[in-house]
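Exercise 7.
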Amino acid sequence: MMLIDAGPLVALAAPRDPSHPQCAEVAARVTSPILTTWPVVTEAVWIGQRWPEFIWKLSSLFESNAVGLHPLEAKAMTWMAEYMLKYENLRPDLADASLMYLAERERIDTIFTLDRRDFSVYRTSRNRALKIVP
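Solution. The predicted structure, written as tokens, is:
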């Protein structure tokens, strides 16, 4: 399994995004399930709102099962709050924390993100860095 962050979601759903070609190429090669969370989708929608067709293209990624939306249970909020405090010097957002929570809970070790700065620093509780794609 692989996690996907807001940047690649935006790029995949917005052909005019500068990262679209690179992200589309990566997505075409992926054979494992790609998962994300509601906080990531919320961030992607906010970023992509400049393109009127964006929400429809984004929703098609989920309808076609190209990307799966993984639920977060109530206890995830406490874990994410603690994680955000641990990395407060990076000012992580809820989307990042939700992905790290999912990585921890599901033992996922790869993330599809354009945010190398933060995800190269984040670690799981076993002090494991995620493999960053692309």
